[in-house]
Every structure is written in structure tokens, then in C-alpha cells.
Amino acid sequence: MMIFNNTTSSPSTFLLTAFPGLELAHVWISIPVCCLYIIALLGNTMILFVIFVKQRLHKPMYYFLFMLSAADLCLTITTLPTVLGVLWFHAREISFKACLIQMFFVHAFSFLESSVLAITAFDRFMAICNPLKYATVLKDMMIIVIGLFICVRQLIFIFPMLLALKTVSFQERKELSHPFCYHPDIIRDTYSNPWINSFLGLFLQLYMTGTDLMFILVSYVLIIRAVLSIVAPKKQKKALNTCVCHICAVTIFYVPMISLSFTHRLLSSTPRVICSILANVYLLLPPVVNPIIYSLKTRTIRQAMLQLLQTKGSWSRNLLRQFQ
């Protein structure tokens, strides 16, 4: 109840909004939203558990998938309380400090996922273009260093954005467009000049995700060039099939994120309900779809999951026999 409070009124609070104009249908809307959250939580937890347990999945490609699922899971958990709080209990009010903390984690895990997608593109580049050096370059220690680097990178560049918000004068009980705290949404329509904060947020967006996306595009240009040099069509198809999951993950992450960012910064006249739908797609689509794609398209992940479920099923049957 520290975060949600419908009775207090102070300039340091914000009002969250789920779907503007559809308040009477929030209970019904919450059913598919809740189902999507359950799928995201179970799917990503299953992938994390399978990769952690199965020794044969302790390879660079699956380590990066582990990081991607961890980022998706943390991003889902970050927005879950406020989204369901607004839809179920109409608990719209959130304090400035709580909003700042949630905004930090939303952007941190979002930028982290972008960095993991960029690293995974490098993994595919090494596997296809330099297969002989793959095992020597992407060792366990190198992967740990890469993971620590991208985590520190998020902290260094996100903290200035948070500190800059301390200087902004907000409207009393400012109404946001989303059921979670998002930087472009917070700085819109402030009393003080939001130019510095808007510029800083745009710079971080372009630097963090822009450089990652550019790195991904360059990697795939080199991958396509290497694949086209392969004479055998079957080998070409096999090489490209290893990139299908990653290409899908990149698409479902960057398209909603770029659309939402440009809608807030460049299209100020966009209806709020459109912004709300884009925001929910941006936050829920990757965590929901990524586990499904990797489970269906990656045979080793699919087999490991089936083996794990069969083991759990046989263990349960044996336990029931003991009690009979």
C-alpha cells in the first residue's frame, strides 16, 4: 500500500492510466492481460530453469538466451504490480519516489535486453562467419565480462536521467498515459522547461538502443554476405535457420519500442489510448513471444523442456504410488 494510494493528494504523486476511455471494461481487459503475464512469467522461468539445469546447454548461445529471458522476466515483474493494480483495484496513484524506481528498472531492463540482442547478433556472426574461432573467443570468462559490462553500462547512463528529473517541476497529481512510469510520459506537460530532460532521454535512447541496433544490422550484413558465399543451398538454409529466432526477437522488441518512443516525442497529438496500447505491446510482446519462439524453433531447448516435463511426470507418478 505504500505504492498505491487513492486518498492522498500531493504534487509528488502521479496518476497511472491503463486504457483511457475504457475504465468500465478494465475487469474484462484484465483477463487477457493477466493471461499474457502468466505466459511471460512461466515461459521465461522455464527457459531459465532448463538452461541452468541441463549441462549440455551450457554454451555461449544458450548463455545469451539465459540473459534475454532474465531481462524479459525482470521487465515483466517490474510492471506487473502497477498494471494489475490499475486494472483490478483502480489504484492509480503512485508516489514520485516509487515512480522513479519503477522507471529506472523499466528502462534498465529494456536497455539490457537491447544489449543482449546485440551480443547475440555477434554470437551468430561468430558461429557463421568464424566458426573455427567461435569456441576460443566466446569462452565462459569472456561471456561473464560481457555480461558485467552491459550491466554497468546501463547504470552509468541511466542515473543521469534520474538525477535530471529532480530539477523538474511537475503538475499536481499529473496524469500519465500508461499503467507504469515511462520517462517520455513523465516529462511531458511539466511546468518547467522539459527540453533538457527530453534531450537527455532521447540521447540515451539513440545511444543505447541505436548503437545496439546498428551493431545488429552490421552483423547481419556480414552474415548474409558469408551465407551467400556458401555454394550448397542446404548449408545456406541451415545457416540462416540458426538466425530465425534472433531476427524475430529483434523485430518484436525494436518495432514497438521505436514506435512508442517516436509517438511520445514527435507525435504529441496521438490519442492517449493509442499510446497506452503501444506501451502494453512494447512491454508484454517480447516476454510473451520470445519463450514461445525459442521453444518451438530451437530443437535442443524443446527437447530439454520435454525431458524435464517427462521427468517431473514420472516423479509425480512414483510419489503417488508410494502413498497408495
Automatic annotation (TrEMBL):
**What lineage is on file?**
Eukaryota, Metazoa, Chordata, Craniata, Vertebrata
Write out the function statement from the record.
Answer: Putative odorant or sperm cell receptor.
**Xref: SUPFAM superfamilies:** Family A G protein-coupled receptor-like (SSF81321)
Source taxon at top rank: Eukaryota
Q: Signal peptide span per the entry? A: none
PROSITE patterns membership: G_PROTEIN_RECEP_F1_1 (PS00237), G_PROTEIN_RECEP_F1_2 (PS50262)
UniProt GO BP:
cellular response to lipid
Question: Which organism's genome codes for this protein?
Answer: Bos indicus x Bos taurus (Hybrid cattle)
The answer to whether keyword Membrane applies is yes
Q: What is this protein called?
A: Olfactory receptor
Name any GO cellular component annotation: plasma membrane
Q: Which Gene3D superfamilies match?
A: Rhodopsin 7-helix transmembrane proteins
Cross-referenced InterPro entries: GPCR_Rhodpsn (IPR000276), GPCR_Rhodpsn_7TM (IPR017452), Olfact_rcpt (IPR000725), OR51/52/56-like (IPR050402)
